[in-house]
Specification:
By secondary structure, the protein is α/β, with parallel strands linked by helices. It is built from 6 helices and 6 strands, in the order βαααβαββαββα. Helices cover 28% and strands 14% of the residues.
């Protein structure tokens, strides 16, 4: 049995976020256009850091859906007797909203399965699945970089492009 920390923001947050941005800034930005972690460098120049204002809306987590296969991924890990908890960095506006979203999906039942931490190097687990290289590289266990357009040019192993690859790595298949 392994203890596995999973980043919460690996949800389909980007879809809603870009919808709102494209609507307000008359742009057609897609997730594939986000080629670096600093999204403000990928949006229109006059938008810049204002892109983060959308994330202050506490209702955003009522609109997003998990990535296809995410719930099955967590369910499978739990059925293999791994201990799973979700870890995220939150703004004051989102404190607790991500937990409620995960609870509604049936992925958490108690707050013991959820941690809000800006510094994920403080988290103790065997594995961390995350899409942000800083979180992975500072993590004390094994950090699995989940491939996204903003990290695809980063040289890191282990890396997973699917939930099945994460399971294979954790369970010794890679």
């Amino acid at each position: 049995m392994s203890v596995i920390a999973i980043d919460v923001d690996g949800v389909n947050l980007m879809e809603i976020w870009l919808q709102w941005y494209n609507r307000d800034w008359r742009d057609s930005l897609t997730q594939d256009d986000i080629t670096e972690w600093n999204i403000e460098n990928c949006v229109k120049k006059n938008c810049g850091k204002e892109i983060f204002d959308y994330l202050k809306d506490p209702h955003i987590y009522k609109l997003i859906e998990p990535y296809d296969g995410a719930i099955d991924f967590v369910t499978k890990l739990k059925s293999h007797k791994h201990k799973i908890f979700f870890v995220t960095s939150s703004t004051p506006e989102h404190m607790g909203h991500k937990y409620q979203w995960l609870k509604k999906l049936g992925l958490v039942h108690t707050t013991d399965e959820y941690v809000e931490a800006a510094d994920k190097s403080l988290i103790y687990a065997d594995f961390l699945v995350d899409d942000y290289i800083k979180n992975i590289s500072d993590f004390r266990g094994i950090g699995i970089l989940f491939t996204q357009p903003w990290n695809k040019n980063i040289d890191w192993k282990p890396r997973a492009s699917s939930y099945e690859e994460v399971i294979e790595y954790i369970e010794g298949g890679k």
